[in-house]
Amino acid sequence: MTVAALYVETGGAYFNLPGVDPWDEERDARLYAGPHPVVAHPPCQRWGKLWAGQPLHIKQTGQRKRKGDDGGCFSAALAAVRRWGGIIEHPWGSHAWPHFNLNTPPREGGWITADFHGGWTCCVEQGRYGHYARKPTLLLAYHVKLPELKWGIGEPRLDPAVIERMGLKRAKRLGEVGARGGGTDSAPRIGTPQAFRDLLISIARTYRPAQEAA
């Protein structure tokens, strides 16, 4: 079964895979109109805890971003996954969940009902699938089989090199994910580990139309 990978990096983890149709920024995944189930990674910057922008930039310029101002990407991803089936990935703590009236799952894991549209949601750590940090991640699935995942809250993974260079206090403030990359090199932070990518694709490929699943 072909899977459409929406909002993915050009030439990244979802490119050159058999049975995967990648939609990067140039193709504009907001225009996706089926017919395949999707794995969607809508932009998260305006939905995270720093949705207003970097504190230093705000202090220097007085300019603040608007919460949820992502050009309609998450809304389009939600419509696509409800219509065509599949799964959405977003960071733990995403403001998109309450904004779109989605139930927030427990941090320690387990699928729960997401809404009244047949959705299911959970939190799982990408660190259990190859990411250097724990990186707790929200998943939102429609019309697919729900697998048992590697649930649980792991131990913090602060980079020893960062602790040695900056001290424990600074390392904690940067966090597990923020300790690597930066500036134009965000790949170490936002990159999807191969095992996690394969997991999401495999879930999307279990899609069954709602009438068949009933």
Walk me through the topology.
Blueprint: E1 3-6, E2 20-23, E3 38-40, H1 55-61, H2 73-84, E4 86-91, H3 96-99, E5 112-113, E6 119-125, E7 136-142, H4 160-166, H5 168-178, H6 187-190, H7 194-204, H8 210-213
Parallel strand pairs: 1-2, 1-3, 3-4
Antiparallel strand pairs: 4-7, 5-6, 6-7
Helix pairs in contact: 4-5
Describe the structure.
With 214 residues, the chain is an alpha/beta fold. It has helices at 55-61, 73-84, 96-99, 160-166, 168-178, 187-190, 194-204, 210-213; strands at residues 3-6, 20-23, 38-40, 86-91, 112-113, 119-125, 136-142. A seven-stranded mixed β-sheet has the order 2-1-3-4-7-6-5. It is globular. It starts with a strand and ends with a helix. Residues 182-186 have low confidence and may be disordered.
Q: Report the helical percentage.
A: 25-40%
Stretches where pLDDT falls below 50 for ≥5 residues? Answer: 182-186
Count the helices. How many?
8
Radius of gyration: 17 Å
Write out the strand line-up for the largest beta sheet, numbering strands in chain order: 2-1-3-4-7-6-5
Largest sheet: 7 strands, mixed
Which percent band covers the strand fraction? 15-25%
- Which geometry do the CA atoms define? globular
DSSP strand count: 7
Output the structural class: alpha/beta
Distance between the termini: 21 Å
Mean pLDDT figure: 86
How do the helices and strands follow one another from N- to C-terminus? EEEHHEHEEEHHHHH
Overall number of structural domains: 1
